[in-house]
Amino acid sequence: MNSQFNKDRWDEILQALTANKFRTFLTAFGVFWGITILVLLLALTNGLKNGVTADFGDFATNSMWMWSQRTSKSYKGHPKGRWFSFKLDDVAALKSEVPGLLYVSPINQLGGFRGSNNVIRGTKTGAFEIYGHYPEYINQDPMDITEGRFLNYSDINANRKICVIGTGVVNGLYDLGEEVLGSYIKINGVNFQVIGTFKKSNGQGDREQDASTVYIPFTTFGQAFNRGDRVGWMAITAKDDVIITDIKQQVFNIIKSRHTIDPTDDRAIGHNDLAERFERVNGLFTILTIVGYFVGALVLMSGIIGISNIMLIVVKERTKEIGVRRALGASPWAIKGQILQESLILTILSGMVGISFSAFVIWGLNYLLDMNGPVDMFSNPSVNMTVIFTALIILVVSGLLAGLIPANSATKMKPVDALRIE
User: What residues are paired with 67 via a beta bridge?
Assistant: First the structure.
């Protein structure tokens, strides 16, 4: 009996929704379009966020770059506009005096991206970025060692003339299938043995600038290219329980003290705080996500209002039928439940079609990105399951709200008055 009742109820709902198919389609389209806009806005926001954060690469975001600049104030007999250079002793001082630091990596650079031809192997030459590094740098800027190994402290202590080269250097100086490990390249007239090859482990790792890089031991760099103990700049990473933004002023104060710089001179030391930038980016996209939900909800609300209006019309058209059912003993909750169920089914069906359509569009965008290569500031538009569940909850609540007013209207009229309406 119960199954027959359920079948009758479903048949009745289906008949009500198909009585005017065009009207039902237009009503459902409002919900379909609203949920589509909501999901696509969130997916595009996520794609933009992925693209922007990809510019950080895999470099530890709780880090900062720091370099020396001209002083902007005279201090203790030193003139304004004085140049100064970091030293290796500064690195040791920072490690010992700032307990919140995890890594302090000194860096020197020779040449520049698309600079002059500075690397030779046989008859082949190339313009590559040459960096002097310490071994811990690989923990700050992760990379995949495809062959051999990265630098170690034995290389540093022995001033070994060895190097680790990127895939772009391999492609530029070696023939396909040629042995790379153990071979030699000449950097500004100095021979270096290749002990490893790498590629960046993040999605942007095949960029030409990343791939066209040569790493050599920092001490060897200073000796071979007459840099001594001078440091071009530093990559500084804080421990997990410390935010680099909170302790960077302590780092600056130590450097200023060691180089006789006015403590109030904020221009003498340049820096790029990745943690601060990353926090700003996350804050921006949190706001954009909220805006996406807000705009999508407004569009969806217009569809819900449409469903509520159409259900009011349906209730009015079925006033006499409702009166007959009430006269035969149907309770107000039974009438109200049927109206709510019709509204809920129409909302959920049109919403699920909208979610499916959004998923297809997102798949198409990712397919085009895979086919045509990465786009600046945009990557992998997608939504997670939380968004889908949120959308489903919104649909259920919206469907109930859309049917609530028509359902109350259907139960307010007395059966005798309903039967009199022609």
Answer: 233, 270
Q: Are residues 144 and 245 in the same domain?
A: yes
pLDDT in tens, 72-87: 999 988 899 999 999 9
pLDDT in tens, 155-190: 999 999 999 999 989 998 998 888 999 999 999 889
- Domain boundary residue among 199, 233, 267? 267
pLDDT per residue as tens digits for the range 208-252:
566 789 999 999 999 999 888 899 999 999 998 889 999 999 999
Three-class secondary structure of residue 160 per DSSP: coil
Tokens found for residue 321: 């039928």
Please, which residues have CB within 8 angstroms of residue 15's CB and are 6 or more apart in sequence?
Answer: none
Q: In this structure, is residue 225 part of a structural domain?
A: yes
Domain count, the chain: 2
Q: Do both 259 and 361 map to the same domain?
A: no
Q: Which helix (H) or strand (E) holds 143?
A: strand 143-148
No. of H helices and E strands in the chain?
14, 14
Range of the domain at 193: 68-267
Using alpha carbons, select from 74, 102, 393, 38 the residue that is nearest to residue 247.
102
In this structure, the answer to whether residues 147 and 261 fall within a common structural domain is: yes
Could you tell me where the beta strands, DSSP code E, fall in 2-142? Answer: 63-68, 86-87, 101-110, 119-121, 124-126, 129-133
Confirm if 421 and 320 have CB atoms less than 8 A apart. Answer: yes
| C-alpha distance from residue 183 to each of 166, 168, 307 (Å) | 14, 16, 73
Q: Distance between CA atoms of 134 and 150, rounded to whole angstroms?
A: 10
335 within a domain of the structure (yes/no): yes
> In sequence order, which ranges of 136-242 are alpha helices (DSSP H)?
137-140, 153-158, 167-173, 208-211, 218-224
Q: Retrieve residue 176's tokens.
A: 């396909």
Cβ atoms of 389 and 56 within 8 Å: the answer is no
The torsion angles phi and psi of 356, rounded to 5 degrees, stand at: -65, -40
Mean pLDDT throughout 305-315?
Answer: 69
| Residue that terminates a domain, selected from 245, 267, 289 | 267
Is the same domain home to 26 and 125? no
The answer to whether residues 367 and 256 belong to one domain is: no
Residue 164 lies in a domain: yes
What pLDDT is attached to residue 77? 87
